[in-house]
Amino acid sequence: MLLLFSLALFINAENVSAASTTTVDANSIIKSSDTVKNYVETKKAVPSTVTVGSKTVTKEQYLYLLASTTTNLNKNSKTSVTVKTVAKAPNPNGNLKTGTLTKSEYVTLAGKITTFINTNGRLPNFMSTSKGNMRTENLIYTYSKIVAFYKTNNRLPNFVSVTPWTKSEGTSSSTSTANPATSGTSFTIPQIVTAAKNYKNYVDSNHKTPSTVTVNNVKVNTPQFLQLLSYAIVQLKTGSKASITLKTVTGSPNPTETVKAGTLQMAEYVKLAQSAISIINSAGRAPNFADSTLGKLRYETLTYNFAKVIQFYGTNGRLPNTLDVVPYSSLNSAVTGSVQATIDQIGRDEAKYGTIQGNKYSYLDVFLAEGKGNCWGSALYLYWRLSASGIQARIMGYIGGIANNSFKHAWTQVLINGVWTNWNYAKYGSKHCGDVGGGTRVVLVDQYEGKGLSTSALTNKLIEEYYEVL
Fold first, then answer.
1. Which of these, 274, 313, 315, lies nearest to 291 by C-alpha position?
2. Does residue 68 contact residue 81 with C-beta atoms inside 8 Å?
3. What is the structure's pLDDT at 209?
4. Is the pLDDT of residue 120 over 60?
5. CA angle 178, 215, 246 (to 5 degrees)
6. Helix, strand, coil in percent for the chain, rounding step 5
7. Of 166, 199, 345, 434, which one has the greatest count of Cβ atoms within 10 A?
8. C-alpha separations of 297 from 49, 198, 459 in Å
9. By the 8 A CB rule, do 255 and 288 touch?
10. pTM of the predicted model, to two decimals?
11. 250 has which bridge partners?
């Protein structure tokens, strides 16, 4: 779910009331879309004003620019767009359900938006779609995603995911009765375990990191909670269950992250905890990042993943042998509810395709055109649809064993709550199958390599990668 607020972005007062004779070029609109998309996903709010090129427009005017640009790009045109005088929607409302809109539908919808604005001089209260009524804020966010996709891939997406937009209040997981933390307060391992469980549940449900965490009815900030978790991991590795004394810890001044989802062994995540402790003790703050074999982890990522470790300890009485790392970007994504509904829809769509063997049916274009294909065609289809919806996916295969014989199998995995999970073909009644065969499993196309490629280029990528790993 997205939160409903209205904030200012890049305010420039002299340009806010752009005249209806003013035009902005398509490239400036395309460039701004990525900024707005990222703003909404970070701030959970639509900005009240947006800078487009050298001009600042209201969010109402910006929707007109996005809708017009979407229509033009669908015609392979980058015509400049006139900045209209656009009033607010008098009674915005919506009843949207989670799902996806096809390119045909969102392009048609864009035309209806511009027609309504040209006729009425204001935004519509809502626009009807196959998934329900979309309110103003949702339209702005959705079309910023569409145009931002064009910016990256030089084409419009085949689908766009949509989710309800609701009002929400509150940003902290702590309770109003919790006492403020003071340096020198001590906490037991069971108290930290309980807090870790509550913290993880909060992040999983709200897709954001709370500013404070309650530990035994004491409110600590997130950097302090990282200190408690780090000490707990290091102590438990040595067999110690001693209480841990809270320190004064501030946030990191320049958090940085490059980590990709993957798995760390116990020795490495314990070393990360030791590294975090070293920075906290020497600098009195959370680390900007900690280095791992998967890349750099910012302190919020460390906190969440260490909470997973401690929660596991609380359930099993031991530290986990491995840790599946969830990157910060995944923490702030709705990996339950909205994304699951999109995954389910894609699963139902894939299940409509038949199965047939032969090299011809390994190609995604053939799979789409003929409504049937082999495991490669199915894997490519799922990867293509999931990636277009902003869901991380990858294509798996085998080297050795059965994969070196005539039957070269491929299947899809999807990232769910930071864990790579085999696609559940059976759940949707698919005629294709997942992880079967023998040999060594390898990633043929990861979540970054094929994103945004055309259907033919994606097929060629899979073929190239398969024979490269052989």
1. 274
2. yes
3. 82
4. yes
5. 110
6. 45, 20, 35
7. 199
8. 33, 22, 33
9. yes
10. 0.41
11. 285
Q: What is the dihedral of CA 458, 460, 461, 464, to 10 degrees?
A: 170
Give the H/E segment covering residue 408: none
- Of 3.20.20, 1.10.260, 3.30.43, 3.10.620, which CATH number belongs to 338-469? 3.10.620
Tokens of 16: 């806010």
The Cα–Cα gap between 240 and 233 comes to 10
Q: 67-100 burial, b for 16+ CB within 10 Å, e for fewer?
A: bbbbbbbbeeeeebbebbebeebeebebebebbb
Say which residues have a Cβ less than 8 Å from residue 176's Cβ, sequence separation at least 6: none
Tokens of residue 227, six digits: 């200190």
State the residue for tokens 């937009």.
Answer: 165
pLDDT in tens, 292-348: 998 999 999 999 999 999 998 998 899 988 888 877 766 665 444 567 788 888 999
**Domain boundary assignment for the chain:** 6-162, 179-331, 338-469
* Mean pLDDT confidence for 105-122: 94
